[in-house]
Give the backbone structure.
Amino acid sequence: MTYIGNVIENVIRNNPGEMEFHQAVREVLESLEPVIERHPEYARAGLLERLVEPERQVMFRVPWMDEQNKVRVNRGFRVQFNSAIGPYKGGLRFHPTVNLGIIKFLAFEQIFKNSLTGLPIGGGKGGSDFDPRGKSDTDIMRFCQSFMTELYRHIGADTDVPAGDIGVGAREIGYLFGQYKRIRNAYEGVLTGKGLTYGGSLARKEATGYGLIYFVDEMIQAKGKSFENRTVSVSGSGNVAIYAVEKAQQLGAKVIALSDSDGYIYDPAGIDFQDLRQLKEIDRQRISAYVKLHPQAEYHKGSTGIWTIPCDIALPCATQNELNKEAAETLVKNGCFAVGEGANMPATPEAVRVFHQNGVLFAPGKASNAGGVAVSALEMSQNSMRYSWSFEEVNSKLKTIMKNIYLNVSEAAREYGCQDNLAAGANIAGFRKVADAMLAQGIV
Ligand code: NDP
């Protein structure tokens, strides 16, 4: 068996039941074959064996008392996967599906994504199986305070800097930051995605969605195409989806569909962005409420139905494995020519194969959604300088970063003989920097 095959087999044996983690490791390692062939020093240094083992993983009890004085217990996680190129960095996810395997897959992906940004940040991820859906502000605050009462001892501005992810937005980051500051008596940039009145960065909220569009725009422009007058479907209707809609519209696209975990909307006239933002960010409503304001739009139950709507460009921005082989085949049949992952690993490996086989331009999440963590790193810089940049300054840095990621990824794909396979290019480019840093730092 090959060196890579052996490492994958050991990962499966040593981490039973962690399906998403196995999937992510296999996806990355298989595309590193030509790199390992060209660089035998990586195998000699046991680099892949070390890379697939988290430096540290913490699991903890999160007890809290809800508004009805009922005792609740959730499980908390923080996986500090790799610190070769900087302090651990990666979001916190609050969702009932969270378990160790999910957090490990996300933390592993984060290593390469963070490396691609060109900024000095390592890979980590955390979260809890707590479900914020339908909870009062008081319950959310009590949960966040209990969660941070354990997490604080593992993180720090130069050690590990968490951020938001699914179920963790500005409100949750505020409660988490407040509790950290209270326990540590230190006002430091220990979290990103903070509010603008207490150390947050302008354009952080928009960064992942905008960055996705900047990346996809580079990818399609390289083939002589643009967003102008294209129809676009965006799955999810959270932070990433909302700002992908805004930027796609600014570039002249017509966004016709959005979803949540219950169902999807189709608006042939094009989504009204202001109403969308009001509904989701301020009123915290379900996406189905959109059709009450726009009677020409349709609501359908079942979230995966969104991929049956014909569109030119598909942007999965909800969650992992939400777009399978069948959905990919339907998109291809309906004339979709580009897919950009806003979420982490939203397309299954079989779906990605369908896109590659049919010449659909495919932007892999670890490159195309790196704008969020890139601006998080810019937030860290601003906190360290005790200074803040304007929206335009941050947005223009974001745009440059996304363009450079596209160039690096496509160049790496070319260099290693897999031209136009940006998924392989992203893995290779992300890996090289981390691998060289690990080599230089010895067996640690
Ligand atoms: P949010 O919690 O803001 O939004 C998630 C959205 O996805 C919600 O509308 C949710 O609906 C929907 N959703 C969840 N599961 C499904 C499903 N099975 N089918 C359809 N819709 C679903 O999260 P974010 O927007 O922050 O994150 C979305 C994705 O982007 C995640 O994969 C995340 O890891 C990734 N990401 C986020 C970054 C960020 O900066 N926020 C950075 C990089 C990646 P419901 O309300 O029904 O649950």
